[in-house]
Amino acid sequence: MTYTIEHAGGRIEHAGGRTVPSIRGAARLRQAFDRPGPVRIAGAHNPLGARLAERAGFDGVWSSGLEISASHGVPDADILTMSELLAVARSMAMAVDLPVVADCDAGYGNANNVMHMVRQYEAAGIAAVSIEDKPFPKLNSFVPGRQELVPIDEFAGKIAAAKAAQSHPDLMVIARIEALIAGWGMAEALRRGHAYVEAGADAVLIHAKGDSPEPIMTFLQRWRLPVPVVVVPTTYHTVTADELHRAGARMVIYANQGLRASIAAVSETFAAILRDGRTTEIEPSIAPLSTVFDLQGVARLQEQEDRFLHRRGQQVRAVMVSGARTAPPLGVPGSPASITIAGSTVLERQAGALRRADVQDISACADVAGAAAAGVTRCPADTAEALASLGTQFSGRTVVTASDVLFDPGPLRQLLAEPSDIAVLVDVGVPGPGHRAPDACGVTLDSWGTNGRRICGDGVPRLTALGVPDAEADAEFAGAAVLSAKGFAALHDAAVARRAGGHPCATLAELLADLVAAGWPVHAVEIASGWAELRTADDLRRVSALLTRDEA
């Protein structure tokens, strides 16, 4: 049996329990070399850095030995094991849809170690491995002092061993030449490069540590073999990638600038916090939590939870959409959601009632601060877009509430207990016409009523009309509905139709009225209390008085 799992870094096929490594990264790297222009890759030491490189537009990620060592607080001197470095490279390859090129130092030993290394890195989905012609353990090239080289034939043997060990031809083996770093001169660098290509290297990396690009330009000018050259302008940073490409370089690695930038930024941030005693001054210059969640893939996590988790409370979600047209829409200054009643905003109270009814996944149109305080997900003010933002893969039930209504948990629990495709809360507690508020949304029902009592036999009452005048109404729409996946799709379609007709912020009552008029069976869950509208100043004063007294 063979099945396939897609992840950000490529495709892994499982055949009879055996994992076949992804080759997409390696193939994409070779395609990048075939395209015009320089291949630019950025150094990273974790999946977050790799995703930042991807979002910035780089062509690939350099799994930097220096960055990974520094992130562990140890020198770049082969102190970390191959397994530790491999684990980081693998996690980056899984996190991004870019080829990852791994800095594999001196190959972690002799030719046998190199063969083992290549098999492990290839199985992890790495696109290319780079090994340098230094003895093991090596020392970072920019550290003054010991910079030794191994004999040419010894390192050529490592390159040949690496090529013999790979299982797919797309994996690239890059031979890193350290002759200029060690002070052995240009002739030695070229001699080594030629030998490594003869041994099978797919590319050579010429390394230098001076502040002038001239040695690199000279090497590129004198390089005649049809094998790409990789450069690392860490110290000779005045030259551009395009200039290096015109001189003959095919790949440019910005190997450690991300690490150095983060060290500077974090140091300044921490100093500012201690200096100011708070974070207010630095908040505009640091990433908001929403960016962190985005980089973590929280949206995808929530989508997967919607599809696959079946624990209590996690197959129901809620969204708040526009209420009555007489009230400002949710998220707008002056709207009910932003008003504080007895120490909590209306939005916080709305979200709290839903959570006590065991609905944890809640979305609403709100400002950043309001959404964060209420613990809800922000969604667009446009009703159709707000419904669409919830996604179409959800197989559970969706509670949709009007933004200008407060609920106790009890009516919401009653609503959730109704299994119909579409069910709404209706208040039948008002004795009759003339007793409802002027802006009440009247409904008619197919149940019988007399002297304030209603009965529907064995069935669940259905709405026959919604939005009728008070004189004709049997009850009042209480501002909440629950919908199956099928019912939610119908509600979304009604919102799209309303927007096409010039009403992007259609209210929940208007959308439900459209469904009733179209023949959808909309069932009624009858209540007599446990909710309150917030459409006028009088409404707010009344609710505030009730809640303040209740919570005193």
Topology at a glance:
Blueprint: E1 2-7, E2 10-15, E3 18-20, H1 24-34, E4 39-44, H2 47-56, E5 60-63, H3 65-71, H4 82-95, E6 100-103, H5 111-123, E7 128-132, H6 152-165, E8 172-177, H7 179-182, H8 186-198, E9 203-206, H9 214-222, E10 229-231, H10 241-247, E11 251-254, H11 257-276, H12 289-296, H13 298-308, E12 316-321, E13 340-341, E14 344-345, H14 346-356, E15 361-364, H15 368-374, E16 377-378, H16 383-388, E17 397-402, E18 405-407, H17 409-416, E19 422-427, E20 442-445, E21 448-450, E22 453-455, E23 463-468, E24 475-483, H18 485-500, H19 508-517, E25 523-527, E26 531-533, H20 537-551
Parallel strand pairs: 4-5, 4-11, 5-6, 6-7, 7-8, 8-9, 9-10, 10-11, 12-15, 12-17, 15-16, 19-25
Antiparallel strand pairs: 1-2, 2-3, 13-14, 17-24, 18-26, 19-24, 20-23, 20-24, 21-22
